[in-house]
Design goal:
- It is a single chain.
- By secondary structure, the protein is mainly alpha-helical.
- Helices cover 50% and strands 0% of the residues.
Length: 141
């Protein structure tokens, strides 16, 4: 939007408090039953995500082209690869998970009224955040 002259950056993405833009963009979610019944599929999704991040970092120009081709296939319309490059430059592509950032997002959601009947001081995400599969993938298991 900025490059097209129809928007203006008010605060650069890497200066958004309190984590300076370090917020998760994609969170993989699965039910306990799915993880029990299809652990290998869940690990495969995690591995595919890690492989995609690695590919984008090692092959940025090819990635922009592939993203543009997928946009064309899905919507019938592509996007200037310079816009794709600009958008990706505002992302911190990583497989790392910040429990603190997820907790901060939950607290903001409580404040905004999206999460009801939970007080910030009672927030406990330990039942919802299981990094064991991610750790297995990172360790090559």
């Amino acid at each position: 939007m900025e490059q097209e002259g129809i928007g203006k950056v008010i605060t650069p993405w890497d200066q958004i408090p309190p984590k300076n833009g370090n917020y998760p963009l994609t969170i993989l979610v699965a039910s306990d039953k799915f993880l029990k019944d299809h652990r290998d599929l869940a690990k495969g999704a995690i591995q595919a995500n890690a492989d995609a991040i690695d590919f984008i970092k090692k092959n940025p120009d090819k990635s922009y082209e592939l993203i543009n081709n997928q946009l064309k296939a899905l919507s019938g319309k592509g996007m200037d690869t310079n816009l794709i490059k600009a958008a990706i430059s505002h992302l911190n592509l990583t497989t790392d998970v910040s429990k603190e950032a997820i907790e901060e997002m939950a607290k903001v959601s409580i404040d905004a009224g999206y999460i009801k009947d939970v007080k910030k001081e009672d927030l406990d995400l330990s039942k919802f955040l299981d990094l064991s599969l991610l750790n297995e993938v990172k360790q090559g298991k």
